[in-house]
Design brief:
The chain is mainly β and about 650 residues long. It has seven helices and 42 strands. Belongs to the RLP family.
Length: about 650
């Protein structure tokens, strides 16, 4: 007898440290042996199928007379043959319309041993969650996430006393009370995100006091503050709490009686008061996410002194604090554990201190968009786990420390928009073999590597605007085979545009060569989204471009010839902005603007264009149109007069 063993791993949250996944091992009997399927259950499944709409024929194996234990999505008990699990989640493929729809037939109730029912990602758009689910007494796992159910959640789901996992995320549901949840006496995992719980004022009482719940997701539920301070049995075990995207205004104080919490997510929750100083009560906390609120007080020390803290995200608030104080507090408690610190977009001030080098497990650090000043400490070279480093948009000064070259895990390096100065050499990048993003524009740095230098990295994004890169086009860019975005604007190149660059076998999305002294002509640019060649000395006709291009800036050059090849190319439908002012264009403005429907900005001023303004220009309806200083005449066409 051929026996195949199937591991049914029920997917649980993205927190890898929480292994709520029950290790259920079911064995499906395959092949030659006698039919395992219980006939009455087969009939029930067929009836269930008949009321479903199955446009892609996913259930084609569900046929009269077959062994239902071998049908797709059906798992039977290996000895009794009873149907135990129905895995009918729709695969999430944008190309395949494989969602089931239609009605849920009560024949499902004949599956007395059904413990797992997964209908996630299907499309039951027109129906309520059927009450009959509340009668499937054996259920331990019910997943209806993103299945387009709507209306009130039937309270009799609370009768499912064996249910451990209930996932109703991402439907159009409403519940005016969560009292029914207290009936789910085995529940460990509850996700009601996106349900309208604005009237369910008991949400906190019910969920925080629930005796078995470990993981709770109530994101985007229109929850409001509950000022009641509830007391919770201290053996309570709620570990993961997600209340993101609600209207809470302050951290619910009752959270601090949940001593077992490991993860708190309060992103986008309208928090604006001070953060209460009770975090000492949740001493096992590993993850705290308060991103995008309006917290303006300083962060209480108890937050930084959580001994197990791995992930602290406080970005996009109004926190006014000295970064050195924060690093000091963090280093007292979670030097070894901290993996991710994001305090970007606040009002932090002060200097970075060399303590930074002591966070050995730090892999993600963002302090962007603050007012941090002073030098970048060279202890940063000791952060051997660092993958992501962003200190852009601060007031950091001094040099770019050489120790960055040691950070062999580094993938993203962003120190753009600071005041660093001095010389950068090849050694600054020596071990950066994994670097994919280098953003460093707007510093006063000089980098003129040896012409034989081959970078150790393959970057997708390189931004070195306002650096001094020497008068020749940087030859090392030749080796960047993955490049999709390049900004070397204002870097002092004064040379003919090299053909090797134009012919690079990579397709860029974004190219910025603004304000150099590049000369020569360009026949073609393989760039999909945005090109800025303004303020150079390019000559010859304007280059041909891809039909996907949206922004083309060629101002202040010596491009010559007529516009018709560019304008009358019918494939250019995406263009939003076209600037070719201050050039040497001649001839008439062509009459073929019908396909320029997305054009919002058009500047052809300061050329030598002649003739009349074409009426078809009115189709574009731009919010900016400049044709000044040309040799054109005639009236404004009526099509443009109401613009
Ligand atoms: C429910 O199904 C969705 C989509 O198939 C999955 O992402 C999610 O993890 C499942 N929920 C649980 C609790 O297993
Ligand atoms: C049936 O499955 C159980 C585990 O779920 C296993 O211990 C047992 O050996 C299996 N029996 C057969 C006949 O495969
Ligand atoms: C779900 O089905 C309805 C009715 O057939 C349809 O209008 C709707 O676009 C579908 N929704 C999705 C997300 O496929
Ligand atoms: C099931 O739930 C409903 C509504 O909550 C309740 O009225 C009913 O008594 C429950 N039935 C059983 C058998 O517990
Ligand atoms: C949520 O439900 C309440 C009724 O309970 C209703 O007044 C409100 O408009 C709903 N909000 C949304 C965003 O659907
Ligand atoms: C607290 O929980 C424990 C274990 O679950 C239980 O034995 C005890 O009765 C509970 N106490 C209260 C006051 O609910
Ligand atoms: C912190 O924990 C203590 C001891 O369990 C408890 O008495 C106190 O109420 C908790 N503080 C808050 C704000 O919940
Ligand atoms: C913080 O915000 C509150 C309310 O928005 C305001 O009353 C208070 O003055 C602010 N505090 C600081 C330090 O800006
Ligand atoms: C640092 O990270 C490693 C690997 O992720 C982990 O095993 C170790 O426990 C962490 N150290 C601390 C102090 O948490
Ligand atoms: C950095 O800026 C501070 C003022 O914020 C200044 O005192 C210091 O001299 C500057 N350091 C360097 C190396 O320019
Ligand atoms: C543009 O780049 C793509 C992707 O690298 C390449 O396949 C294509 O041949 C290039 N087109 C031209 C005309 O160079
Ligand atoms: C503009 O065009 C006219 C006629 O075509 C020509 O005489 C004149 O020299 C041109 N001016 C410039 C600046 O190119």
């Amino acid at each position: 007898m051929a026996i195949a063993t199937m591991t049914t791993a029920l997917p649980i949250s993205f927190f890898p440290f929480l292994l709520l996944v029950p290790a259920i091992f079911f064995t499906i009997c395959h092949a030659n042996s006698n039919l395992l399927c219980v006939p009455s259950e087969r009939e029930a499944l067929l009836k269930f199928k008949n009321h479903l709409i199955d446009p892609s024929n996913r259930l084609s194996s569900w046929v009269e007379g077959g062994d239902c234990c071998k049908w797709i999505g059906v798992v039977c008990h290996n000895l009794t043959g009873h149907v135990h699990q129905l895995h009918l989640a729709a695969p999430l493929s944008p190309y395949e319309q494989s969602a089931l729809g239609g009605k849920i037939n009560p024949s499902l109730l004949e599956l007395n041993h059904l413990s797992t029912l997964d209908l996630s990602n299907n499309n039951f758009s027109s129906i309520h969650i059927p009450k009959l689910f509340g009668l499937l007494e054996s259920l331990t796992y019910l997943n209806l996430s993103r299945a387009q159910f709507q209306g009130a959640i039937p309270h009799n789901l609370g009768n499912l006393s064996k249910l451990q996992y209930l996932d109703l995320r991402g439907n159009d549901l409403i519940s005016e009370s969560l009292q029914w949840v207290s009936g789910l006496s085995s529940l460990q995992y509850l996700d009601l995100s996106y349900a309208n719980l604005s009237k369910a004022t008991d949400w906190l009482q019910v969920t925080f006091k629930h005796p078995s719940l470990l993981e709770l997701h109530l994101s985007t539920c229109i929850l409001e503050d509950d000022p009641h301070l509830i007391s919770v049995n201290s053996s309570k075990s709620l570990a993961v709490l997600d209340l993101s995207w609600n209207s809470l205004s302050s951290v619910p104080k009752s959270i601090f009686s949940l001593h077992g919490l490991v993860s708190i997510d309060l992103r986008f929750s309208s928090l604006d008061g001070p953060i209460p100083d009770y975090f000492g009560n949740i001493s096992f906390l590993e993850v705290l996410d308060l991103h995008q609120n309006s917290i303006n007080s300083s962060i209480p020390n108890s937050v930084f002194c959580l001994n197990h803290l791995r992930f602290l995200h406080l970005s996009s608030n109004k926190i006014q604090q000295d970064i050195s104080e924060i690093l000091q507090s963090l280093s007292r408690c979670c030097l070894g554990s901290l993996e991710s610190l994001n305090m970007a977009d606040n009002q932090l001030s002060g200097h970075l201190t060399c303590q930074l080098g002591q966070f050995k497990n730090l892999s993600y650090l963002s302090l962007a968009q603050n007012n941090i000043s002073g030098p970048i400490p060279s202890s940063i070279g000791e952060l051997s786990s660092l993958k992501y480093f962003d200190v852009s948009e601060n007031q950091l000064n001094g040099t770019f420390p050489l120790c960055f070259g040691q950070l062999e895990s580094l993938e993203t390096l962003d120190f753009g928009y600071n005041l660093l100065e001095g010389v950068v050499i090849e050694t600054h990048f020596s071990e950066l073999t994994r670097l994919t993003t280098l953003k460093a524009s707007h510093n006063r740095l000089r980098f003129e590597p040896n012409s034989s230098w081959i970078p150790p990295f393959q970057c997708q994004i390189i931004e070195l605007g306002h650096w001094h890169l020497g008068s020749k086009f940087p030859l090392w860019l030749k080796f960047q085979k993955e490049l999709s975005s390049l900004d070397i604007s204002h870097v002092g190149i004064s040379y003919v545009m090299p053909t090797w660059f134009v012919n690079l076998p990579t397709q860029l999305e974004y190219l910025n060569l603004f304000y150099n002294q590049l000369t020569g002509g360009i026949s073609y640019l393989n760039v999909t989204n945005s090109i800025d060649l303004s303020s150079n000395r390019f000559t010859c006709p304007v280059p041909r471009v891809l039909s996907t291009l949206r922004y083309l800036f060629l101002s202040n050059n010596s491009f010559s010839g007529s516009l018709s090849e560019l304008i009358c190319n019918p494939s250019l439908k995406e263009m939003v902005a076209l600037y070719i002012d201050i050039n040497l264009l001649i001839g008439e403005i062509p009459y073929c603007w019908n396909h320029w429907e997305n054009l919002a900005y058009l500047n052809l001023g300061n050329n030598n264009l002649t003739g009349k303004i074409p009426p078809t220009l009115g189709y574009t309806n731009p919010c900016m149109l400049n044709l000044r200083n040309n040799s054109m005449f005639g009236e404004l066409p009526s099509t443009l007069r109401n613009s």
